[in-house]
Design brief:
It contains 11 helices and 2 strands, in the order E-E-H-H-H-H-H-H-H-H-H-H-H. It has a two-stranded antiparallel ribbon. Helix 2 packs antiparallel against helix 4 and helix 2 runs antiparallel to helix 8.
Amino acid sequence: MKAGRLVVANHRGVMVPRTLGLWLAGAALVSSAAVAAFGDTSVSRAGWGALAATMLVFAAGLIDDLVPDGPRGIREHVGALASGHVSTGIVKVLVIVASSVVAVALQPGRSGWIRLAGVVLIAACANVWNGLDVRPGRAIKFALLAMLGLVSVDLLSLPTLPGVAAASVLALWPDLRERAMLGDGGANLLGFTIGLGLYLVLGDAWVVVAAAIAVAINAVAETATLSWVIDAVPPLRWFDALGRLPA
């Protein structure tokens, strides 16, 4: 694999390195170590499991970044699989789903159906944020907005969250200035963290609602595209363009 494959043309044709995901992954590791070292009690088994699952999701996305261009979107990946071609995208999806299963299984106190909804929520969020990472700053801005609802997360169960949030704030400027971008590794990590955080803070009924919304957003991304929806809704269009370089 050539490291140069991490440098790609963005939507305007500007060559941009897909390296911000490395910041997020490193921050997730540092954050988990800090919570373990300075917390009043030790990080739970679920917390360490969340860290391991997060790193697996990042690694799968990074590998997908490094390989030559292949199918894009879930439909194309499934079509390739049906024709006998196992793409790195399909492998990434399987890793994300498996990591979601492990992360949810380690969290206590939920019924089987809610755990299933949690797996759907986390995996769907990982793919949603991958779909958002097509314009400078878009994925990070929407992630920071979503993280405002995660302030009550138990950090012993999700010790990666403070680091990912802080790294996202620091990464926003170079992303908006088109000096670097998340890539699949960073975008999937971001969505996975948000999905798991939502699973931890939402009540049972709201986990189901959030999972349904995340699946619906993925369906829109496969048909009308998220860019079309964002451009069609004035408040979303304004927020999306905020801080971005002029066309």
